[in-house]
User: Fold this.
Amino acid sequence: MDAGTTLLDAARELGVEIESPCGGVGVCGKCKIRIEEGNFQKFGIESKMDNLSPLTEEEKEGLGEEEIDNNYRLACRAAIEGDVLIFVPAESRLGEQVILQTGRKREVSIDPIVKNYYLEVPPATLQDQRDDFSRIRDLLAQKYGLEGDIFLDYSVAAALPVTTRRAGWKVTLSIWNGKEIIKISPGLVGNPWGVAIDIGSTTIAAYLCNLRTGETVAKKSMMNPQIVYGEDILSRISYVMTNEEGLARLSDSIAEGINSLLEALVEEAGLTSPEEIVDLVLVGNTVMHHIMLGIDPRYVGRSPFVPAFKYGADFKARDFGIKINAGSYVHWLPLEAGFVGADNVAVLLAEEPHRQDEKMLIVDIGTNGEIVFGNRDKLFSTSCATGPALEGAQIKFGMRAALGAIERVAIDPKTKDPRIKVIGEENWFDAGERSPASGICGSGIIDVCAEMFKTGIIDKTGRFNRQAGAPRVRRGADEKMEYVLCYAEDTAIGKDITITQGDIRAIQLAKSALYCGAEYLQEKFGVTKPDRIVLVGAFGSYINKESAMVMGMVPDCNLEKVQAVGNAAGDGARLALLSRKKREEAGEVAKKVKFVETASEPDFQIRFAEATAFPHRRHKFQSIRHILKQSAHRSGSTSSG
Amino acid sequence: MDAGTTLLDAARELGVEIESPCGGVGVCGKCKIRIEEGNFQKFGIESKMDNLSPLTEEEKEGLGEEEIDNNYRLACRAAIEGDVLIFVPAESRLGEQVILQTGRKREVSIDPIVKNYYLEVPPATLQDQRDDFSRIRDLLAQKYGLEGDIFLDYSVAAALPVTTRRAGWKVTLSIWNGKEIIKISPGLVGNPWGVAIDIGSTTIAAYLCNLRTGETVAKKSMMNPQIVYGEDILSRISYVMTNEEGLARLSDSIAEGINSLLEALVEEAGLTSPEEIVDLVLVGNTVMHHIMLGIDPRYVGRSPFVPAFKYGADFKARDFGIKINAGSYVHWLPLEAGFVGADNVAVLLAEEPHRQDEKMLIVDIGTNGEIVFGNRDKLFSTSCATGPALEGAQIKFGMRAALGAIERVAIDPKTKDPRIKVIGEENWFDAGERSPASGICGSGIIDVCAEMFKTGIIDKTGRFNRQAGAPRVRRGADEKMEYVLCYAEDTAIGKDITITQGDIRAIQLAKSALYCGAEYLQEKFGVTKPDRIVLVGAFGSYINKESAMVMGMVPDCNLEKVQAVGNAAGDGARLALLSRKKREEAGEVAKKVKFVETASEPDFQIRFAEATAFPHRRHKFQSIRHILKQSAHRSGSTSSG
Assistant:
């Protein structure tokens, strides 16, 4: 290495990328490194053995006294004058693996599509009359090696002359995909901010991330404001079809919803305005995708169920009234099919079945269930009309996963009395204990069905078993059988919370749809069981995997190989926000997955009817027999994990 | 060639491109060709000698009886079954040289950036669930060889599902640059429409062109509506600087102006709406460019006079309120420098000095004069502050080139009486004849100055010569000398129209600025005279080249090598509209031209003062001496050509 080379350049030549958001002009203080050997500055002696240039003013400002004492230097200021050994602390390393911590930990190499570049531009003179943009472009090439066609968003062009001059020609440029300048900010802006949003039919979840560090600094969610126009997707399609302004109203409401989430995120993170957000990744099902983009969704809901387009797409946020930085894009991940949307692609990005040898079954449980089966060789997907029961809708005392919802249930095999866990409360409530329960959400319903079956309160057909001797089973006001989960005095609503025969039937239909879908996909692949199961869903808490197995919602599998994760779609969206590679991977995996139209299979009706039963006698279910056996032994204890 | 190949495909294989806007499905009738040998269809005999497939129903519909009798077939329907000799009529050939007829004829190969593609798309089925876009993209590749990344403008994505299905999957796509679908129209739309606009400080001129044939089908012009905010560029810059909403007001007014021109063009051409326009090319000076794009122009008018950006740019029309097709772009040609704008690049595109060996001097006369000198080796440009006199402003009876403006003047060398030509009137008016004259425009002022000098009414310094014996020279009300061009009773304004000493001075300053600019550029190039001169300007009529020479507005040159053309900027804009190659050429030539800041040359003031004189004694002006001599011989005849 030549003497006089800065440590920053030297490290780069050796292939070690050190953080330098200011581009190496000594103003950001991010390129701190520690000298292990060859530095004697700290003794204040000009020694012959001193192998580095003297400490600069910028370093005295940018480093604390303690750091200077500990041999820290700024890599962009310290020049090599002999042999040195340096240590680059993790926070100064660029492009490191950063761990995304949510439901599960996921690793990603930070390489966002929008990056910030700080420049100190030489002002124009009569001798150098290059236009503002050319002097920026030339410097980008020189300092950052950014070559090729670079152009300006019109909003940046408009801001260019005034912003550069007011900032004394010290500006930060946010550049999209190495080719379009989408924002110009005065001075040094080290952190570009991005947001990932999962637009569910019911809930919108948003994550604000630092695009430099990968850190998620704020999370917010809200009810999808479209819900006033229809609970589920089909009713929203029908609203579009029956109201002239329907599509515009739905599109506007989602844009407003997103804008208010952005405001909330920015406030939580202490940023000044959503205009600081330079990138936005969106995922959601196909109908949410279409409506948000102003595309009539009616044909998605009608045979042959095809979307307008599937490829991952970048559109200017301003064209949809999304109020982030004026020049920024929104990126929609690709779709798979009419009923398997960008949210499922995000799930695949997070779970990566296409990178595994193990054959994975991924079940995303919602009003519409999406199932993927396969591994690196082949991937198949389908969608199942589960209905809203698994989300707590169309259940007598069903409710969304909100405060007061019963999210877990365990039934004592002897007394047949339930214990419940309620959202917002840390401890379980025993039978007869006063609780703030006001209804039951999806994960609770799945639990209670599984527990009633395990304890014999219902039989394998789902019918109440009068021989079970369960005091809480009774005839309801409508003369139909029901199980009392909480008596009126133990609830927040002053009414008995019951599980009716109808509720059980609704759950049976839903789980049968999922089960059949999985079975067809396995057959397409050419196997009879998965190596691994992942249960995905934006439930209040994670679904209890044992209950799901007991119900026969998924095929038999070693219980240790079954995982329930939270909102994997949100995780996948964040991965796509933080990594260009992941965005490319999304396109590839979306193409790889083959959509299977299971409902048109000739034996679908028969299989579906069969699969509504609880599966304790079906020899296929090794794992369930095991669970049931264990459960019989653990009499009196709670059986949910 | 294989038997069964259509003539369309066969011709394509042989490198002959035949028109087929419908993509060869027999519906547009544009691929008519004539069979010279090998066709016996017309006799209605199935002969062994018949070397073409039988006449189809589409051909019976698409061709007239006469055409069928004359051996015409549709190339897309007629298949080869043996040897044939065909003739492709000019109107069926694609990519032919088309002549653009304006001031001068210019040839261009039609290859617009937006082209139309007609498709008959197979509808989706449960067996083929490709999304709408994929089935279009696949067909584009298959039928038109359009490969690579193609994507959708969001407005097209939004229209896609409904438009395709309502049109029975027969649609025309307008594709920008082979990669972005910017419009989808039901059925076959053979002609894409484009507009070229030259935004002058004073006048906006617009041309509506058929992008398939290259034909200009309508022209319109209007006063630049910004004029209420300031007559010239500097006063508009000052309006921006002194009014908070100034920039927005100026930008809006130009957008409104453009929109009203578009409406007028569309009406004239009989189109239904400006939304049929799929492409728009804009040229104009740097300040017009900046204001239209919402860029603060103040730094363009202030040393060191640099623009925000110079490269040729594509922006979505909608971002500026320009109401053409929602997905379409506006393309601004590149700028050269702060005071040499996209209009000058357009002039270069039209005049092509960069393709000549001859050293050309191009003088674009306006409030700001732009001069280019050079040839294929080197090109230099500069801008000269001519002031508005050459456009008729700041002249006592000056007016714009509009109805009633005196546009030509000839003075009898004996009687010193003028003859005038007035805009809107075909014939010249003699002195003392009643005319609708209400003032004098730029070309008229140049004429009258040259004629007064030629006839000795003024001397070489521009002063009135009392010895000339001109009865129309008198002292005005202000006691200053003036020449009466029309007496009150011969005008439409009831006032004497005079040319004052002040008017002559203003013209002298303007022409001196142009002359000096040209001289400096010649010196930069290393020569003392041009091989050729082109006078450009949006005058009412073309400037009289002899008058310009006599005045000393341009350097000496063989008069046969001097041309006055009209709005070459408008021509250049149209060329860029019709040809991708010309658009690329614009970028290259804009980079090639080196801007010279003449006003900062040390001897500028001295040269400028010298050049204000009329040049009859300066030995450099061979051509002028010749003109003056001729003029003396032709006593009594009009001397303007």
